[in-house]
Amino acid sequence: MDNIPIKPQSTIELRWESLPLVLSVEQVAELVDVGTQQIYDLSRTKDFPARRFGRIIKISRDALRQWMGEDIHKPVDGGWQDESNTMSLVRQTPGRI
């Protein structure tokens, strides 16, 4: 049996502005590539930017970005560059052995 090569990671560029201002638990879970239960667990912590509306949980796009520590102003040669429109996500790509 031949081994099928595994591509360990892929990079996806995502524009923050293309996301809705308010995200659902499912959208955040997909965005950061974790299970929804992990987001529900995080929503119970004090510092996670989730808000409850009865049984519904919503997360602010901008507050999530800040909570994740996304540095939108990065130093570059000759000055500072504003990269507020783009975020890179590295996801594990499932493969077969």
UniProtKB/TrEMBL annotation:
Domain Helix-turn-helix: residue ranges: 22-68
Region (Disordered): 75-97
NCBIfam families in the cross-refs: excise
Pfam families tied to this protein: HTH_17
Composition bias, Polar residues: 82-91
Domain of life of the source: Bacteria
UniProt-recorded name of the protein: Helix-turn-helix domain-containing protein
